[in-house]
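Proteins fold reproducibly. Take a tokenised chain:

. . .
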Amino acid sequence: MKYQDEDYLREQYVNNRLSQAEIAERCGTTQPEISHLIQKFNIEKPARKPHHDENWLREKYVTERLSMTEIAEHCGVSVSAISDKIGRSSIESEGVNGNRNPMSAPEKRA
């Protein structure tokens, strides 16, 4: 069974960033079985992308005044993923009624 192969499991969990449940479903087994094997092989949980950290996101968007597009490119995610994170955070975004178009690069403050 391919899910019992350490290299396969590492590829799916770390490189492809599939959840344990997704791997289990694809392999016709259970999530607890996948969890057991991940622990057995000492496979570390994939690192979260930096945009999941609200302080990091605030630093880039507010302080450094990077656009959502620039942040998305840096993180390797879609602009909508960044927009969603900002929308669900306490970070105030500027948009249609603001002075800044969040999708384009802002002017840097002097």
Summary: The two ends are 60 Å apart (CA to CA).
